[in-house]
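Dear Dr. K.,

Following up on our conversation at the group meeting, I've run the structure prediction for Protein NrdI from Vreelandella vilamensis. I'm pasting the input sequence below exactly as I used it, so you can double-check it against your construct before we proceed with anything downstream. Let me know if the numbering doesn't match what you have in your notebook.
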Amino acid sequence: MTQIVYFSTKSGNTRRLVEKLQRDAQRIPFESGESLPVATEPYVLIFPSYGGGEVKGAVPKPVIHFLNDERNRRHLRGVIGAGNTNFGTAYCLGAHIVARKCQVPLLHCFELLGTPEDVAIIYQELDRV
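The predicted structure tokens came back this morning:
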């Protein structure tokens, strides 16, 4: 079973979606003083985009720090992005950037805390990876 690693802001929207999945999950800490997890098995990364639609800053810094560890990049199997459709073409931009840079598939994008349909799609994608 593919594990989940996720980053959630203080709003907790991404965390709430991950909880709905009822799967093994590790959280990338919001605060920089906390230690980052190290992936030891295949996982899918779920995180929201930052930056208000700008490329610079679209990937949250804790996610960048997590992916800077080669062990974490090696086990990455796919990306799921959270975003806000109000940002138009920049919707889930951070997830697109990570998927392209790490050469893994972008499995799904969902808005804010997701819908029951998003949860069903993500279940399917996790089982497929």
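Two things stood out to me. Residues 62 and 110 are 20 Å apart (CA to CA). Helices lie at 13-21, 61-67, 70-75, 93-102, 116-128.

Best regards,
J.T.
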